[in-house]
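Components:
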Amino acid sequence: MAPRPRVRLRARLVAAAATALGMLLTGCSGEPEEDSGTITLQFQSLAWQKESVDANKELVKEWNAAHPDVQVKYVQGSWDSVHDQLLTSFEGGEAPDIIHDASDDLADFAYGGYLADLGELLPERLKSDIPQRSWETATFGDGIYGVPFLQEPRVLIANAKWLKKSGVRIPTPDKPWTWQEFRKVTDELSGDADDGKYGVAWPLKEPVSATLNLSLSTGGKVFHRGADGKVEVRFDAADQVVPKTVHDQVNSDRSASSSTLGMGGSDTLPGFFGGKYAMVPLGFSYRQQIVQQAPDGFDWQVLPAPAGADGLTQGVSPQTLSIAEDSPHKKEAMAFIDFLLQPENMVRLAEGDWMLPTGTEALKDPALHTEKNDWETGTELAEHLRSAPAQSVRGYPEWKDKVATPALQEYYSGAIGMGELRRRLVEDGNLVLARYQR
Amino acid sequence: MRTSKPARAAQYVALAAYLVFLAFPFAWLISTAFKPAKELGSLDPTWIPHNPTLQNFTQAFDEQPLLQAMTNSLLVAVSAALVAVVIATPMAYVMARHRNRLARAATGWVVISQAFPFVLIIIPLFLILKNLHLINSLIGLIMVYVVWALPFALWMLVGYVRAVPPELEEAAAVDGAGKLRTLVSVTAPLLTPGIVATAMFAFITAWNEFFFALVLLKTPEKQTLPVILNRFIGTEGVADLGPLAAAAFLATIPSLVIFALIQKRITGGMLAGAVKH
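Structure:
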């Protein structure tokens, strides 16, 4: 029996669809092998804001134009899941040659042997341009596993009109507030009336890094490395100043909003613009969002974070550029990094990300000393930035997720006291770290 | 038993509340997609933007290769759904109609395979695909999605096959139809809603999948929509909210359209009575 016309038509349609699909898929197979003679390097960048992506792509284009025999291919990565993505690429032997990441993500890769030790590869210019305190952020054991190039201090973004009206002293990098003064000021700014207005809004969705990094100003270290190289958690008086200030602002003075404790930085901005909070402690790069989203005429300014016994010191985890250990072209990859981090290029990258460059030459650039968007205040803080205390500690991610985050969240919300916080961070924390240090 | 009027009214209220609950995130997404940056930072957000703008869409298209990503996603998701269904349907038929030890073992394996998390299999999978030169390849990704969707697709289809009464096939045989004719003319039409639902499941699984695509695809021209959408999110989870909402809104349209087109087949088939008990 001959097939019916409708069935024939359907069969033809299916065949046509299959052919089209086949044709499309033929263009979808893996990458061809590179041509002989020309070296091709893969540069995985995590730049995500338009200005930053543009700056990175332009620099790659400039390099490629000047170096026909060493071509760089821009590969777009993503901050979210970068650790898992890189780990898989390393294990599969398909890692990019040049890797953009952050120093607090490098420890496992450095100790795991996935990243090249840059000690011998670094050109003298780059070595001397970036200060030792920044190199320390990417040094694990005896090796340097990344070139730190962009960083940001945590600052106070303030409602300038509110502060001016209140008559409080406006802090500067030369004369910052102390933590005690800060607490007094926020109390003053929030006033007596129960009108839902607060002197400060702490966005502490991720409370651990904020607390540890700011605690460097009061001499807090939390992680103490012994002579045997083993790390121990302590939570002494110097470590307690910052958490206690936040706790008291929220629970005793009511000068800090309790509802923002679970928020990320961006979530606090509507309240900040709406006049609910006088100040919000945020990363320096948040200025971009503020410029984009602030209502017309909203007057804001950047203030340094409060200072403690160790002045304005605070911990940072700079963005880094590393080279994969498996890369057959390490020298060329380093030459590209050196090009990318020439002072004028570092400034372009910094402006694109609204962050500070680590290079001393780049930091002198007039573009980073303008009053516009308070670049100057941030630039003055650069010398106080140190390696975040936790980043070279093995087992830190587990300590952070299982012990410190819930403990600090409960402490800040008033559910537990300082004694219980200390017990959990130290006793429970050391049990976690011990498993990594056997 | 007839439902009383108050009970019926309560049912409608509950249904309406459920619909609002389901529609809320999508409605908010649309609202956000059309809001200018300054309204996104407002303390008193509104459903209807005061100054609606297409700027977020322009910026999203300007910053990321959305059309290319959407084409890749469609290609991968449709292919994965088709291949999964083509493989799963005959397997499901055999497993449902022949209840022997092998079928039971296969069912057990299907259930167990669902217990493995992504992170456990990603590195071995990566190595296998690397050996097959299928890293950074949409074909490789389609294979992964087929394998990933297959167990659940199979499990779904076995249920649908079991719901088709064997008496119908026996009646066809009595009327002189051969095995193939019975399958094509009797069983397949009754299985259509099940096949469509399974294909839908495989399509949506592949359309939404992020991690495999992130790890297996490297060059921007091959990346799928979830990976591209992720680029609107930066450090510390800070998002470029307007363009992200605009791109996410566009990303939901194909699955909505496909679902709208085939939903009649799913419900129609389900409602069709096959045998009078």
